[in-house]
Amino acid sequence: MQILRAPRFSGFCGGVKRAWSIxxxxxxxxxxxxxxxxxxINNDPAMRELAARGVNILRVGEGEAPEGAGTLIMRAHGEGxxxxxxxxxxxxxxxxxxxxxxxVVQEKAKRWEDEGYQVILxxxxxxxxxxxxxxxxxxxxxxESVEEAQALPHFARIASLAQTTALLSEYxxxxxxxxxxxxxxxxxxxxxxxxxxxxxxAVDLAQRCTVMVVVGGRKSANTHRLVEVCAxxxxxxLVETVEDLDPAWFEHDSVVGVxxxxxxxxxxxxxxxxxxxxxxxxxx
Length: 284
Description:
This protein is of the alpha/beta class.
């Protein structure tokens, strides 16, 4: 068995590295309780590690309140203005770990609505990033598919945005429909460059392998996109931890490609690769 890893874009992206460092630094330096506004990143093993370090979730935007003073870290996916306002009202010290690219999309949503455009965001309506982005608008809409775009009424002006972890090819298909739904159309979508390059690198790797393993959180949108693009070429599987690996996926002569979502810890990737290697030794 041969194991090949995506060489550059697998594991923590820049925004996640920053958020993770902020959380660690804040916990080390802050007196009192330290909270995060939701899952800092969409990876359950990573969130369990943060909880073990004493950083727990406090969803102030959903009505939760601390027992006393403390520090609240805004997660990498961002939060809407209501969450910031309530944190201030509760007397919490706020540390903003919002990804810089996400922040730009939030600013675009507000600016284009202020200029009279109907903001349409392509993404997952239950995803925290998408929800936070439209929270900066009064009338912004989230759509999840070309079919939902086709069902929209006609608007005078539309400004389209994309969840930063969206599949670029699907967003472009949505834009083709949205152009027919407005007299004036502005494509303001910004898919994260890391996400796009990770998908391209994963496809290149998949074309040289017989099976792909994508390590990442089950709730991670960018991890699921990696599985989707790889599955167009070879059988592809999402694993969150080594316990999810199935020896039946592999043969003694398999060429196994390994990549990872942008919120996946390096240790999780290394553990998965070591287990795959052990499985391969058992098949020899």
